[in-house]
Amino acid sequence: MSTATNKKLITTLIVVVVFLVIFVLLGPFYILYEGQQSVVTRFGKIVNFEQDSGLKFKMPLIDTVVVYPKKILSWDGAAQRIPTKENQFIWVDTTARWRIADPAKYYETVNTVNNGISRLNDVLDSSIRTIISENFLNEAVRNSNQINNIKIEEQVQSVESNEDAETLRNLTVTQSRQETITIGRDGLSNMMFDQAKQFTAGFGIELIDIVIRQIRYSDDLTESVYQRMIKERNQIAEAYRSYGRGQLAQWQGQTESEEKQILSAAYSQSERIKGVADASAAEIYAKSYSADPEFFELWRTLESYRKTIPGLNKVLSTDMEYFDLIYGKTVKD
Amino acid sequence: MDTMQQPPRPARKVQNISPKLVIWIIVAVVLVMLVLSSFFVVDQTEQSVVLRLGKYNRTVGPGLQTKIPLGIEASYNVPTQVVQTMTFGYRAANNASSLFGRTDYDNESLMLTGDLNIIDVQWIVQYKIEDPVKWMFNVESRETTLRDISQSVMNKLVGDLPILSVMTSERTRIEVEAQDNMQKVFDNYGLGVRIVTVKLQNIVPPIGAVQDAFEDVNKAIQDMNRLINEGKQNYNKIIPSARGEANKLIQQAQGYASERVNQATGDVARFNSVREVYEQSKDITRTRLYIETMESIINPSSEGSVTLIDKTLANFLPIQMLEGGAK
């Protein structure tokens, strides 16, 4: 092989490759991936649009392809401060899903994805504002009336009698009947959706849903709600403490009462026992002594002397019977 | 001379070999690149979606897989086996899902309850990609969509319940309903995910004075229990001892009673016995009893002193001696 043939070969190869590249770059084919759709324009005029993925044809050089996402896109609205029907200001944060349903119309009216978002901003913000301000706060916060069927009570613990537990529950009850709602949060979302849908259809946009992501009170309202929550808790705390003090007093009273009852009952019983004993002793004595009162007197007197006199310092007169014989008296004088 | 002659030879060699070699090298490199780019690896935790010329062609599992090179087929690996977690209201630091070292995101977690109170709810959502094709090509910003819908559903559920129920009894119901509702919305979008679980984390009143007030209720319950126990303690301290005291009184009375009756019986028995004798010889017994008694009374060994005096002073008595004897 000579160098000349080699050089020829290389040149041919390079030429082929360059032509191939030019053909592919400018050529009639482009790839549309899954999740994409395209609009083909010729000198600014829409000639075709594609929604299925795959290898697509276009006229080389003169056709321009604009690719749009076919996927569901999300719209993230800035939170808006909106007055409700009762004129309370709340922050409403919403989000929406949408998709380019008609790429040709979208190309005509909107053109880019970012433009689409700003169109949505206009349409959605206004319908959200309208719907929220036409309805009461409760309709936006709640979704159903189930709150009125839920029994809320404090967990009353360590209370002995059912009656007391009931009292405590009544003291700590915070439930108040909530206003009945007729539309609810989902209902409002649907109303926003219905209203906005009419406008977005004109842009080739299919609106899939609008959901309220979050609702918050405005800051000054938040503060007053906090105050209300605090007061509510304080009232409950006081109920518990006061109940505790009451129970303490009751126990103290019960203790004192029972103590007195027990001791006095015992006193009464013991005195009765003693009385009965005294009585039966007296009876025993009386029965026996009454047999001979004269001897009883003698016996009892002497017994008594025996007990009482020995301990005394005695000054005795000598003319007592005992000393008779000392002075020579006869016994029977 | 040698140095002059030697260089041309290698140069000629290069010139001779180079055209062929260059072509072969180019061909080889292209071949290697083609071969390399027609293989791809799918991890055990993943599935791979293969597009041919942009159109969905097939889904392949883990292992070494092949595709047509030159950009005709493209593959996207999707982690379908991994359960992924999203946190709401806080972000764990350093990806550790612990409650320590984390940042709170109040704006996500503060919510209105149905009774128009404010509560701080933090939760997690765990999900798995169930259908990699749907996941790849149906929804544009998937993470945002997951977050948005999860937040919206949670807000709606909490907004429908009173604050106390959210904090206590309805927790499980909220978790279950949130999971159902989210799943429905995502199915509707064709997002291709399955919600594995929704778990509520901290549900607390707003931090600061409100939380303190809630805390104070717990303290009040403790105070209440303490007071009640104090009352019971006092009762237990006094009543059982009072009962004992009462028993003591009664026992004492019974003792007294027995003593009294027994004493009476004894006294009477003695009296009766002596009386019987007395009846037989009254004078003798009487005198004997009298003298015996006097004897014991005026006994010098008795405790008190005895002083004898003559009432009329008709007789002299050695008083001093008697006194001394009495001592």
CATH architecture verdict of the largest domain in chain A:
2-Layer Sandwich
Uncertain stretches of chain A: none
The major sheet of chain B is characterized as:
4 strands, antiparallel
Helix percent of chain A reads 40-55%
- Structural class call of chain B reads alpha+beta
Total beta strands of chain B: 12
Count of alpha and pi helical runs of chain A: 8
CATH class of the largest domain in chain A, please?
Alpha Beta
Output the helix-strand order of chain A: HEEEEEEEEHHHHHEHHE
Low-confidence stretches of chain B: 1-12, 318-327
Family (chain A): Belongs to the band 7/mec-2 family. HflC subfamily.
Pfam family, one (chain A): Band_7
GO biological process, one term (chain A): proteolysis
Keywords (chain A): Hydrolase, Membrane, Protease, Transmembrane, Transmembrane helix
Description of the structure:
The complex is a heterodimer of chains A (333) and B (327). With 333 residues, chain A is α+β, with helices and mostly antiparallel strands. Chain A folds into four domains: 38 residues, no CATH class; 116 residues, 2-Layer Sandwich (Tetrahydropterin Synthase, Chain A), CATH 3.30.479; 56 residues; 32 residues, no CATH class. Helix content of chain A is 52%, strand content 20%. In chain A, strands 6, 7, 8 and 9 form a four-stranded antiparallel beta sheet that branches. In chain A, strands 3-2-5 form a three-stranded antiparallel beta sheet, covered by helices on one side. In chain A, strands 1-4 form a two-stranded antiparallel ribbon. The model of chain A has no long low-confidence stretch (mean pLDDT 84). Chain B is of the alpha+beta class. Helices cover 56% and strands 21% of the residues of chain B. Chain B has ten helices and twelve strands. In chain B, helix 5 runs antiparallel to helix 7 and helix 8 packs across helix 9. The longest helix of chain B has 72 residues. The radius of gyration of chain B is 57 Å and the shape is rod-shaped. The termini of chain B are far apart. Classes of the chains: A alpha+beta (333), B alpha+beta (327). Chains A and B meet through helix 1, strand 6, helix 4, strand 9 and helix 7 of A and helix 2, strand 9, helix 4, helix 5 and helix 6 of B. Strand 10 of chain A pairs parallel with strand 12 of chain B. Chain A: This is Modulator of FtsH protease HflC. Chain A: It is found in: Membrane. Chain A: Keywords: Hydrolase, Membrane, Protease, Transmembrane, Transmembrane helix.
